[in-house]
Sequence to fold (614 residues):
Amino acid sequence: MSDLTRRQKKTLFRILAAAVLLGAAALLPLPGVWKALAYAVPYLVIGYDVLGSAARNIGRGQVFDEKFLMALATLGAFAIGEYPEAAAVMLFYQIGELFESIAVGRSRKSIAALMDIRPDSATVLREGGECSVEPEEVAPGETIVIRPGERIPLDGIVLEGAGSVDTAALTGESMPVDVFEGDRVISGSINLTGLLKVRTESAYAESTVARILELVENSAEKKAKVESFITRFARWYTPVVVTGALLLALVPPLFVGSWGDWIERALIFLVVSCPCALVVSVPLSFFGGIGGASRQGILIKGANDLETLSKVETVCFDKTGTLTEGRFAVEAVHPREISPEELLEIAAAAESYSSHPVAQSILQAFEGEIDKSRIAGVEELAGRGLRAEVDGETYYVGNAGLMAQIGAEFHDCHLLGTIIHVAHGSEYLGHIVINDRLKEDAADAIRALKALGVARTVMLSGDKAAVAENVASRLGIDRCLPELLPAQKVEQVEALLAEGGKLAYVGDGINDAPVLTRADVGIAMGALGSDAAIESADVVLMDDRPSRLPLAVKIARKTMRIVRENIAFALGVKLIILLLGALGIANMWFAVFGDVGVLVLAILNAMRAMRAAE
Fold:
């Protein structure tokens, strides 16, 4: 109850009040006009907004919608004295509308969540000193200072200093990037190590972080809403029914007379035509599918999202945190003339004072205790690695550039990933391969999607081409698009959308929020994904397992099959009763029985959607 919006709570209260008043009206032995008034009270309590909406739409020229049909059919029932039917039909309609509202009306706070990447202030050098100002107050060409742990407030070029920058929130690239003088840094990323002085390239409004916020807003506006089935249905059903009722009331009496009888048949025709079985069972089917998915750890935020998911032909994936674990681990240890354990121990000892993700992965792989009394000193060599004194001996741990500098004879590794070389003085000892591991079920998820008939799978990544293409190849993904910034990801998704077919995008980071909102259906990893990605997405996989995605597609397709079954059954029975009513064979009670029977069977069928995952 606490999760309902104020409007939904009000509708629920009206439904309960109308149900009580309807029951009271049915029990009271009232004559004629008093009976009509007794049923008019619950009818108006539950239906005043439908009547008002129908009247306003008529004033705007939008006549043939479901509100008009509900108003006309129920008022027609009152006109021929079928008061219980009129009130009950309106009550069923509002119950269906409440189900739909609950399923679709979940609040999304993607913009508010994205504000977490917006820097609060910028430290700018002015008149020989530092001053803290709002990022919007910094002009292009000014020099700003970013200390370790601070978020970079504006895009710019490094003038002085070197360090590692975490760009994961923006590019999705999992490894920190080393930057030096002359390198470009982007706003929203975090300076991990070293003091940086940066010359700003543009105003805050044109910065990367500001553009991401704008992209989410624009993408949300550009994403077309899928019309509800009832609205689409009413566009042709309502005018056909109204025209049929008019013809039934006016044409036969011209030839056979009995105007009163034919007008009554026309009103019965309108009452019977009221699609309460569809109005209730269609939203209930969606609601059941959404509920069944939630029990499997799949949060589908609305009926429109479920419908779109069932039609997906292209699935695009982010890499880091979606198909990979997003945590680094030692993948291989390749020593030269010493054991793997010895090589790992030397590297762990040298890295024991570092908080860098690479260092932490080496320490986790070693698993032993590091006696720091053995370590005399550690010197960081910016952008290359470090030099450490271990047991009185000098060791170098770092990249290929460091090995070349000290004259160690090293060799390139055939594996892709981050390569950490180790040398004793200038004697090369070997290297360690560190990688972001693939999720165990990622390959199974891709195979399952293809088995379901998904036409193509695509991976969009901020990682370097060699790393991203290697992951795509190992998983069997059809196409890989690497080295993309958030704006470029949106451009690629728009290009894929232009090729036709419904498109789903699966991601987990803040940088994925604009793409999630732009795709036909956005799917976020819930357990480890950012709040912005979760709020921007239409579907959330709560346990971060990619294999949940094929299951979500299966649930969506089964639910839509149940919806189509209810539509076909309800319309088929309705057509038969309409014909019998027009011929004078079916009276109102027969029509009510047929209508309620269809409604009950449709609801029972809709409840199967709760077990759509089975």
Q: What stands out?
A: The CA atoms of residues 335 and 343 lie 6 Å apart. The longest helix spans residues 548-582. The two ends are 28 Å apart (CA to CA). The chain is about 50% helix and 20% strand.
